């Protein structure tokens, strides 16, 4: 293995976040650093910051999720944030949702190798069949998938009333929450709230935007445009 493909040593907070699952988190990091780079799932420059920027950044969202919750990771990709979350919280009923076949193959390999009780489903959140089969989730999580208004439009049909979207975001979270608040409200969401996860544990806490499903999704797009919605599109 090339030296550049070797995952860095886990930092101190990793043992706090992952507990007994730390050896599995190390194995996941090693897989990302080697096969993950080779298969184009992460960039080679990300290897040095695998722990802080990717694994720990994803796993600390666990503090916002209740025990035994039903969770869907939309656009799971390389398994972020879903696999670190599954390692930190094996009590969760977790589904990794990903449309691309090569990424689905990767997720299935990793889930099997780590012995995780996690579902891997190929599809897009907006597909009628996915909305029908995955509806009723307590939480939808997503990382670097889409702007908030579009992401909420995909997530809302998957959530039960009172369910929440936890979107991992960067420095622009406050501006994005303000910009898309009206569109989210029109699509059945509450006021987007920006929060931090891992405060006191991580040097740089994870920034999230949290949105609760408070109403029935109306017959307008997330930007308020009128559109016809068939019974099939509504998941019937």
Written overview of the protein:
Helix 4 links the parallel strand 1 and strand 2 (93-98). With 236 residues, the protein is of the alpha/beta class. It has a domain at 67-212: Rossmann fold (3-Layer(aba) Sandwich), CATH 3.40.50. It contains 8 helices and 7 strands, in the order αααβαβαβαβαβαββ. It has a 7-stranded mixed sheet with strand order 3-2-1-4-5-7-6, sandwiched between helices. S-adenosyl-L-methionine binds at residues 75, 80, 125-126, 143. Its main location: cytoplasm.
Primary descriptors:
236 residues; alpha/beta; Rossmann fold; seven-stranded mixed β-sheet; 7 strands; 19% strand; globular; disordered C terminus; transferase
């Amino acid at each position: 293995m090339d030296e550049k493909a070797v995952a860095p040593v886990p930092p101190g907070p990793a043992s706090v976040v992952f507990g007994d699952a730390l050896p599995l988190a190390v194995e996941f990091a090693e897989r990302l650093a080697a096969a993950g780079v080779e298969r184009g799932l992460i960039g080679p420059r990300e290897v040095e910051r695998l722990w802080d920027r990717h694994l720990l950044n994803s796993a600390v969202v666990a503090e916002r999720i209740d025990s035994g919750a039903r969770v869907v990771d939309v656009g799971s990709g390389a398994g972020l944030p879903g696999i670190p979350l599954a390692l930190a919280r094996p009590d969760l009923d977790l589904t990794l949702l990903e449309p691309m076949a090569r990424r689905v193959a990767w997720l299935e390999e990793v889930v099997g190798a780590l012995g995780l009780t996690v579902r891997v489903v190929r599809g897009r959140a907006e597909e009628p069949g996915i909305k029908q089969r995955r509806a009723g989730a307590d939480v939808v999580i997503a990382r670097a998938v889409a702007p908030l208004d579009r992401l909420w439009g995909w997530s809302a049909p998957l959530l039960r009333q009172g369910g929440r979207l936890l979107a991992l975001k960067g420095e622009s979270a406050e501006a994005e929450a303000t910009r898309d608040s009206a569109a989210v409200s029109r699509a059945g969401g509450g006021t987007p709230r920006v929060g931090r996860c891992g405060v006191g544990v991580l040097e740089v806490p994870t920034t999230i935007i949290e949105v609760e499903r408070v109403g029935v999704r109306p017959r307008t797009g997330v930007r308020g445009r009128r559109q016809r919605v068939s019974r099939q599109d509504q998941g019937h």
